[in-house]
Amino acid sequence: MPGARLLFCCLCLLPLPATAGEAWRPADHPAPLVRPVAGLTRPLRVVAIAAETAGRIRDPGPVMGAMVADGMALTLDDAMARAERATAAAALASAEAEAAFRAREAARVERLFGEARISEGERDAAAHAAQAAALARDGSRAQLARADEQLARHRIALPAGWQVLRRLREAGAVVQPGEAVLEVGDLSAVVATLHLGEDEIAALTRATATVAGAALTIRAVRVADLADAQSRKRAVEIELPGAAGGGREVLVALPLPDPNGAVAVPITLIRADLDGRFVRTSDGRSLRVTVLRTAGDGLVAVLPTPELLAAGLVPVDDQTTGRPDGRTKPR
Predict the structure, then answer these.
(1) Same domain, 70 and 166
(2) What sign does the CA torsion over 125, 127, 131, 137 have?
(3) Are residues 67 and 169 in the same domain?
(4) What is the dihedral of CA 303, 307, 311, 314, to 10 degrees?
């Protein structure tokens, strides 16, 4: 069996290329623990456009996914509203004519009263009629203003630059006041809600966010003041550029301190054989190491020991490099 082990090692070991430079000191290279957290993006603001009056939809507005241009609006059939406005306008014209007549009549009666040609009662009656006509005219003006407002509510202006998220009613549908017809969103920026612990919230300042493989800048972080009693986590809203789009999965990588205090060691400095994994120190010692995980950029996270933290690691020509799975590369 010893001969078989020696033969296996001779076949599997790959000589380590000589490298120049100082010894690698693991104590100077803590291995961060990157924790990925996923969320879904949504528009920064969402508004449901609702009907302000009852009516039949004439133009339901842009289709889903379209951007709202200046002047775009959702319109209801306003034939009845226009007729009511015409009626109110005619009533106002009549009231204004009546008020003007009564005012002239009151002035004439006042002149005649000054000439002692009519009684005081007749003068008071004429003044009262003029005042009533003026009040009726003011009431007609209010009715016309109300008709104008009612007519204006048949056209609902949409916020320019927003995107149509959903069209809830189509042309010809009858809607009631307060019924949602269109849903639009502000995609100048998008937000995603994550549920994080306190250590994860603290790491957000160093976090990176990606959508479909593209790195994005976290513009703002808003943390809720209420926490879930069971998970002990708080809702955190992160704001991203609008280019990310809504309804996309965002992956946030949170760099957290390793709870085991792991250190990073180049994989090229680790020798793996049947007895385990070893590194060589600058003073010629061989130390057994425990690899926890890969750390990226050709590094692996290693469980620290006092000897490892105090040592400087160097490659040697008569040892071999290992892989994270512990298997050695054949010649």
Answers:
(1) yes
(2) positive
(3) yes
(4) -70
Note the pLDDT tens digit of each residue in 183-220.
Answer: 999 999 999 999 999 999 999 988 999 999 899 999 99
Whether this prediction's pTM lies above 0.70 is answered by: no
Cβ contact 26:290 at 8 Å: no
Does 61 share its domain with 175? yes
2 within domain boundaries: no
Report which DSSP code applies to 143. Answer: H
Q: Do 267 and 330 sit in the same domain of this protein?
A: yes
pLDDT digits (tens, 9 = 90+) for 45-92: 999 999 999 999 999 989 999 999 998 999 999 999 999 999 999 999
Report the C-alpha gap between 43 and 47 in whole angstroms: 10
Query: Which domain does 330 fall in, by range?
Result: 12-31+259-331
Residue 124 CA to residue 113 CA, distance in Å, equals: 10
Q: Is 101 helix (H, G, I), strand (E, B) or coil?
A: helix
Which band of pLDDT confidence, cut at 50, 70 and 90, is reported for residue 317? low
Q: Which two tokens stand for residue 143?
A: 């009715």
